[in-house]
């Protein structure tokens, strides 16, 4: 079903699982809630990215002001070898999770 | 007052620090603190004492005990955001605002409790448990509650602090510190401030650095300030505001710390009362207080007019979409590789990430990430995310129009009702609660405007109620000046806690003083 595909796609994108029917329902309610946005007439309105949009971003001088804290940063990682963070193999795709019991109605 | 006492030697920083630590221990049941940094705090207090003895304090904040919400990075101290994902994470650096406070000599007592990753409006959803409102244990609340057996009902009748900076609000309200940092994305500083009877300031977006504040919604987050009086808020603001090269969303304008004048004449002011803030669900008590406050200004000669912010009711929906979208992006950094929790699953990178995130995040966080990803899908981007951004502009424009029409400041309620008992609060889920509770505070975040919640009066149940002032961008001085005048007029009562009374002796008066400046 298209809806189940969507759910699997979302789980893969987010790398977070719905865990159970309640999670799916939560998403459903969230979408219904967000649909209320369609009531507002936004013709001719530009999207707003930031409240500071009228100000210019600045650039600073290209001088190194901090760094050299390798030891500090490595302290918090669980798996490391010398100065590398160690990850499990990356070219294995995420296994497909079981089909959910409920489906998303509509979009 | 405390600062003066420190200068005159009536009390020493270490004595002050120890008393605060003792009070933290005796109010442990409030669950306001996640981490108490006793050793470092005492060391800082000792350093401060040396400075006072030399007659060279760093400033008003030197030696003053403060606490910080647990989503600010603090070097050497565990920073968890009340989540399993960051349990055991010891920050390698101080957030800019924390550093600024320490540079002024403030004594950092510890990290306060919050909703997991600052998502929520009750401070009930963190992994360390909910925070209890100190007012649940006040004489004022106990007197008003009808109970058959005192001890039995006390356990089940306690009220929430509001959220998500509930721990910070409870800490300030119960006298364990003189000021606390929170964060405000949808009302997270002002909501608990109103419920706990303290001042909660949300500064203009771009005034205070967010470097080191674990981000929720990059375009709306700001560090918030919680204190017992408006003057204190101005002092703390003065020490942490200003441009930070490490945060490119801070404005470059020069920030001058200010002292608040004692306003005597409000006749030149124009106070706006937005009619849409008479939201469904607003308790009649708060409505009455709001009118009384408007009358207070009117009687003092100010111009009080009704204004309209027509898109107010969409701010929550808009927030819902933008927040979940930004959260989906911001939470992507938690993969277990560089820091934080890492799952034992080792089959592949992606399955490790997925397992780590499944184990580390609670339902609320995961729900928002998934919703956010949904709204950001190619087929939904235009209809949800871009649409929400357009609505955001409409909301911000509402405010611009009102302020341009000559209104100096807006007066609104902060919350729909006084604090509810925990048992009632948890009957609805997190998103529903946030939707209901954030409605009066969210729009200020949407538009990036400064807002402050000032404790106004006690409700019929003996719990605090606060009213909110929303000001013009970067006009914190005007906002706080008016708030200070209002504070003086309403004379909000001091909380009467039994624990505090037990430790009461002469010098402890300084502890209970409303202000430290």
TrEMBL record, chain A:
It comes from the Eukaryota. One of its GO terms (biological process) is mitochondrial translation. It holds the Pfam family GatC. GO terms for cellular component: glutamyl-tRNA(Gln) amidotransferase complex; mitochondrion. InterPro entries: Asp/Glu-ADT_sf_sub_c, GatC. NCBIfam families: gatC (TIGR00135). This is GATC amidotransferase.
UniProtKB/TrEMBL annotation, chain B:
This is Amidase domain-containing protein. Residues 25-480 form the Amidase domain. GO terms for molecular function: ATP binding; glutaminyl-tRNA synthase (glutamine-hydrolyzing) activity. The keyword Chloroplast does not apply. It comes from Cuculus canorus. The keyword Ligase applies. It comes from the Eukaryota. GO terms for cellular component: glutamyl-tRNA(Gln) amidotransferase complex; mitochondrion. Pfam families: Amidase.
């Amino acid at each position: 079903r298209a809806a189940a595909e969507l759910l699997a796609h979302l789980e893969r994108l987010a790398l977070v699982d719905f865990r159970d029917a309640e999670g799916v329902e939560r998403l459903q309610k969230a979408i219904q809630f967000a649909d209320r946005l369609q009531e507002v007439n936004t013709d001719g309105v530009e999207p707003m990215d930031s409240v500071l949009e009228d100000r210019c971003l600045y650039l600073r001088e290209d001088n190194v002001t901090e760094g050299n804290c390798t030891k500090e940063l490595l302290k918090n990682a669980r798996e490391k070898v010398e100065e590398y963070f160690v990850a499990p193999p990356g070219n294995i795709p995420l296994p497909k999770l079981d089909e959910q019991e409920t489906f998303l109605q509509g979009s | 007052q405390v600062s003066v006492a420190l200068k005159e030697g009536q009390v020493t920083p270490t004595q002050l620090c120890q008393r605060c630590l003792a009070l933290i221990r005796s109010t442990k049941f409030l669950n306001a603190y996640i981490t108490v940094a006793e050793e470092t705090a005492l060391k800082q207090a000792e350093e401060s004492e040396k400075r006072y003895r030399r007659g060279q304090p760093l400033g008003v904040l030197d030696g003053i005990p403060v606490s910080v919400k647990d989503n600010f990075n603090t070097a050497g101290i565990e920073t968890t955001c009340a989540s399993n994902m960051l349990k055991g994470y010891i920050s390698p650096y101080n957030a800019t605002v924390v550093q600024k406070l320490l540079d002024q000599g403030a004594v950092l007592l510890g990290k306060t409790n919050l909703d997991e990753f600052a998502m929520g409006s009750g401070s009930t959803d963190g992994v360390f448990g909910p925070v209890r409102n100190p007012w649940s244990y006040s004489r004022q609340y106990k007197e008003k509650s009808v109970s058959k057996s005192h001890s039995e009902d006390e356990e089940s009748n306690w009220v929430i602090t509001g959220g998500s900076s509930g721990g910070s609000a409870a800490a300030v309200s119960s006298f364990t510190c003189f000021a606390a940092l929170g964060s405000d994305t949808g009302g997270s500083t002002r909501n608990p401030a109103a419920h706990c009877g303290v001042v909660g300031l949300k500064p203009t977006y771009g005034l205070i650095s967010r470097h080191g504040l674990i981000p929720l919604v990059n375009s709306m987050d700001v560090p918030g300030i919680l204190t017992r009086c408006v003057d204190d808020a101005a002092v703390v603001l003065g020490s942490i505001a200003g441009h930070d090269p490490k945060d490119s969303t801070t404005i470059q304008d020069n920030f001058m710390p200010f002292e608040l004048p004692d306003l005597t004449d409000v006749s030149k002011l124009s106070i706006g009362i937005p009619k849409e803030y008479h939201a469904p669900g607003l308790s009649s008590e708060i409505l009455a207080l709001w009118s009384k406050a408007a009358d207070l200004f009117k009687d003092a000669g100010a111009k009080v007019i009704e204004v309209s912010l027509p898109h107010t009711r969409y701010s929550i929906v808009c927030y819902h979409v933008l927040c979940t979208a930004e959260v989906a992006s911001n939470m992507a950094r938690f993969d277990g590789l560089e820091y934080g929790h890492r799952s034992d699953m080792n089959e592949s990178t992606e399955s490790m990430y997925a397992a780590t995130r499944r184990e580390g995040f609670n339902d609320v966080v995961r729900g928002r990430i998934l919703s956010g990803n949904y709204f950001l899908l190619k087929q939904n981007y235009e209809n949800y995310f871009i649409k929400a951004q357009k609505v955001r502009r409409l909301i911000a424009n509402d405010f611009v129009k009102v302020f341009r029409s000559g209104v100096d400041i807006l007066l609104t309620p902060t919350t729909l009702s006084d604090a509810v008992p925990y048992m009632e609060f948890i009957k609805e889920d997190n998103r529903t609660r946030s939707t209901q509770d954030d409605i009066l505070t969210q729009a200020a975040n949407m538009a990036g405007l400064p807002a402050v919640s000032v404790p106004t009066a006690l409700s019929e149940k003996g719990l605090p109620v606060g009213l909110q002032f929303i000001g013009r961008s970067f006009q914190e001085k005007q906002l706080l000046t008016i708030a200070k005048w209002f504070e003086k007029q309403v004379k909000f009562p001091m909380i009467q806690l039994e624990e505090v009374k037990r430790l009461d002796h002469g010098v402890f008066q300084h502890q209970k003083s409303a202000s430290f400046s």
